[in-house]
Amino acid sequence: VVTAEVALSFVLLVGSGLMIRSFVALQKAEPGFDPRGVLTFATPNLRLPDPAARRAFMANLQARLRAMPGVTDVTAANPMPLEEREGLARWGTEEALTDPSKFGQATVRTVLPGYFDAMRTKLIEGRTLTDADNRPESTAVVIDRVMAGKAFRGQTAVGKTIVARINTPEPQRYQVIGVVEHQRHESLARDGREALFVPDGFFQYGAANRWAVRTSGDPMQLAGAVRALVTELNPRTGAIEVRPLLAYVDEKQAQTKFALVLIGIFAGVALVLAAVGLYSVLSTTVRQRTAEIGVRMAFGAAHGSIFKMMVGHGLRLSAVGVAVGIVAAVLLTGAMRTMLVGVGPTDPMTFGVMAAGFLVIAAIACGLPALRASRLDPMVALRDE
């Protein structure tokens, strides 16, 4: 029973250790943009008659938002980073036109000029999209670092051509004008797919309908003014939801936090039960072996040797339980793979630290009954015989 308790508590301790390391890695994860001080909202139902009207609305809304007190930058995209959806396109280099197996799949983001500056996404080489690129016939695209590495490893990507099927029946050629840092799209826990960015004009304007308003203070202080402005410019848009971009970040971290707390609670309870079990078993062993201990001490056994003997007995039980727990943990932690960040389900460091820590706790739990055994009066112990 004690061995089973030890094994179970060790499995849960390993799970807690993996989640702790994942949570630390998640806090350090670089999303490729700065979510602090950013207010987000969507204008999905413009219902404007033609591209010119949509372009005018976009320009007017952007200008009016920029004029608000405390606003430092305004942009729009579709989808916004960390939204649980993405537009996909098959893409490749020129070689993919003759060898379709070389096509990959990328996330496509529609953005306004100035998007990367507003989102604080680093430009690695080349330039970003400008107003001159924001037109339906434009073939200019910006790609991220991941796509550049796959397509043009060891070379400059600027000026090169990629082919992609973006809202067209056949792949079309596009010219790379810049490379930016990779943005994590769906999750902070995983890098996600490579991405390419096209101007809003590519889709006849208005497709970039997820807005980001960067502010110098609390972004939610502008929520009421933003709602009023959108309603003023286009009453048919309807009610809009206004949220800070950090709320998306918190939601993405919530799963890891919840799993960490839940597994941590179970691990703590299991650890206490295992320690109590070891204490009880060793206390019972001391009572059962009282006479033996008295004989050993009568024949000159030192108090220290009695202490070591009893602690060793408890640690052997613990070692067997830990060994069983390691095997079980290797088999079971694979189910946690999707929740882990920056660490594998069989991370040797986590297993090693948890095993050492558990044996230290086991030694402490065994220490009290072992100490009691080493302090027995030999005459009292022999009378038990």
Task: Tell me what the structure shows.
By secondary structure, this protein is of the alpha+beta class. It folds into two domains: 162 residues, no CATH class; 196 residues, no CATH class. It contains ten helices and eleven strands. A hairpin with a 6-residue loop joins strand 7 and strand 8. The longest helix has 44 residues. The radius of gyration is 32 Å and the shape is elongated.
Task: Give a short summary of the structure.
By secondary structure, the protein is an alpha+beta fold.
Short key terms for the protein model shown above:
elongated; 48% helix; six-stranded mixed beta barrel; 385 residues; 2 domains; alpha+beta; 10 helices
Structural class: alpha+beta
Please report the total strand number as a whole number: 11
User: How big a fraction of the residues is strand?
Assistant: 15-25%
- Using only C-alpha atoms, the radius of gyration works out to 32 Å
How many angstroms separate the termini? 29 Å
**With helices defined by DSSP (H or I, 4 residues minimum), what is the helix count?**
10
Q: Average the pLDDT over all residues and give the rounded result.
A: 86
Unreliable runs, pLDDT <50, ≥5 residues?
Answer: none
Q: What is the helix fraction of residues, given as a range?
A: 40-55%
Secondary-structure element string = HEHEEEHEEHEEEEHEHHHHH
Total individual domains: 2
Query: Main β-sheet, in a few words?
Result: 6 strands, mixed, barrel
Spatial strand sequence of the major β-sheet? 3-4-9-6-8-7
What would the principal axes of the Cα set say about the shape? elongated
